[in-house]
């Protein structure tokens, strides 16, 4: 017997009919003798609608009331799933975040989960009752409802799995696992059998949308094995597949590069002719940090005359206009010749824990791109990742080439 947390996303609970299908997955696990907690998202589209209504009500809304509104979608699906489970003879009850209680900090709209006690849930599960939990929500220290940020049900599920000491957290979604890259771009993309927490964290941060980034962080910290699989597999199928996100040690044969992610949510900014002297970087990035704008890739050229240099960096595309504005206002303070911006860029990243032990991965990548005439505008690396910034028009060409280069193509 195992203790399992099953999470179903918005498309999996989009209609009552689909909720019935979810109930059959739950039934299978219960009949196998497992203790089960289920975490549900809102029906797909619901949260967007709720957010739209809030913004329509007032541009200057109270974030606590935003949370009261947007958390409601999950309340509906948790109740519906409990009802459907009853109808097939399974003991179940719904749980709202405040009833568990799943405690969060007070950052309404993007709250973080604080340590919380899973005892009430465990007691229910031990009595043979399926816990059907509304994802995405918890209760802040001010006793108000708080939500965890868009896509937050993944994080709810992993946090609950950690709190109830579950053997595994199964994330049911609309794809059958994590792929080597986006299959819509590279038809030869393959499902990854096992992926290390660190790799998944990079994949999620760099554009793969299967799991919310924070859920992967949470899984990594608490060592919760996460299994990503499709809710559209027949509930009684015996031959389904998925991707296990787990410890590096549990992966036998690992590739040098496990996956390729890309993100168009980047914009490039160049400051031409900034002084080449101590303190300049602080002057450039200080005002951006004050405005809570995250800077990612940074390239500073060597100055040819010893006086001035050019500095290039990227910011999230959504922050581009604000960043340009901040830098324009700080022109006197920073001192630069010209400010240039470019939103027509994409960040392509190769990810794999195998890079720690293999040399020459980057060179191979740069050569492959050069052969295709693709110019690299910026580079960043970490122990398990190489990211490059290129012109957006070359996205597909680059991703396909790298996918082949690192032997990821499906046979
Ligand atoms: N319903 C919420 C959202 O759409 C949370 C989730 O589905 O994970 O962001
Ligand atoms: Mg999601």
TrEMBL record:
Belongs to the aspartokinase family. Transmembrane segments: none annotated. Pfam families: AA_kinase, ACT_9. GO terms for biological process: homoserine biosynthetic process; lysine biosynthetic process via diaminopimelate; threonine biosynthetic process. GO terms for molecular function: aspartate kinase activity; ATP binding. This is Aspartokinase. Substrate binds at residues 47, 74. The keyword Amino-acid biosynthesis applies. It comes from Candidatus Raskinella chloraquaticus. Residues 269-353 form the ACT domain. It catalyses: L-aspartate + ATP = 4-phospho-L-aspartate + ADP. Keywords: Amino-acid biosynthesis, ATP-binding, Kinase, Lysine biosynthesis, Nucleotide-binding, Transferase. Pathway: Amino-acid biosynthesis; L-threonine biosynthesis; L-threonine from L-aspartate: step 1/5; Amino-acid biosynthesis; L-lysine biosynthesis via DAP pathway; (S)-tetrahydrodipicolinate from L-aspartate: step 1/4; Amino-acid biosynthesis; L-methionine biosynthesis via de novo pathway; L-homoserine from L-aspartate: step 1/3. ATP binds at residues 7-10, 173-174, 179, 184, 209-210. Its EC number is 2.7.2.4. One of its GO terms (cellular component) is cytosol. The keyword Transferase applies.
């Amino acid at each position: 017997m195992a203790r399992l947390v099953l999470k179903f996303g918005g498309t999996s609970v989009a209609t009552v009919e689909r909720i019935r299908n979810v109930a059959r997955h739950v039934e299978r696990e219960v009949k196998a003798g497992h203790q089960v907690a289920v975490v549900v998202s809102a029906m797909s589209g619901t949260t967007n609608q709720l957010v739209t209504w809030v913004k329509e009500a007032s541009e200057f809304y109270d974030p606590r009331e935003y949370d009261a509104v947007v958390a409601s979608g999950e309340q509906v699906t948790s109740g519906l799933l409990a009802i459907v489970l009853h109808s097939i003879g399974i003991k179940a009850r719904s749980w709202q975040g405040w009833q568990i209680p799943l405690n969060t900090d007070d950052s309404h709209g993007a709250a973080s989960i604080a340590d919380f006690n899973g005892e009430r849930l465990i007691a229910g599960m031990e009595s043979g009752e399926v816990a059907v939990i509304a994802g995405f929500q918890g209760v802040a220290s001010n006793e108000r409802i708080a939500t965890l940020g868009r896509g937050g049900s993944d994080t709810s599920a992993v946090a609950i799995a950690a709190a109830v000491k579950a053997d595994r957290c199964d994330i049911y979604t609309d794809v059958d696992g994590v792929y080597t890259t986006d299959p819509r771009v590279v038809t030869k993309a393959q499902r990854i059998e096992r992926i290390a927490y660190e790799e998944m964290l990079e994949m999620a941060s760099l554009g793969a949308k299967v799991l919310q980034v924070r859920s992967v962080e949470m899984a990594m910290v608490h060592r919760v094995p996460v299994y990503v699989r499709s809710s559209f597999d027949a509930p009684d199928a015996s031959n389904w597949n998925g991707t296990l996100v787990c410890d590096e040690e549990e992966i036998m044969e690992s590739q040098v590069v496990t996956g390729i992610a890309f993100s168009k949510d980047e914009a490039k900014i160049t400051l031409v002719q900034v002084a080449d002297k101590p303190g300049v970087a602080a002057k450039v990035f200080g005002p951006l940090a004050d405005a809570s704008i995250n800077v990612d890739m940074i390239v500073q050229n060597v100055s040819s005359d010893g006086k001035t240099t050019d500095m290039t960096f990227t910011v999230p595309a959504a922050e581009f206009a604000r960043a340009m504005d901040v830098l324009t206002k700080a022109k006197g303070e920073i001192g630069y010749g010209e400010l240039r911006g470019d939103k027509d860029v994409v960040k392509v990243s190769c990810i794999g824990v195998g890079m720690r032990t293999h040399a020459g991965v980057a060179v191979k990548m740069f050569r492959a791109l050069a052969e295709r005439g693709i110019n690299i505008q910026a580079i960043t690396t970490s122990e398990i990742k190489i990211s490059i910034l290129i012109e957006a028009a070359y996205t597909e060409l680059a991703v396909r080439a790298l996918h082949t280069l690192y032997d990821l193509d499906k046979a």
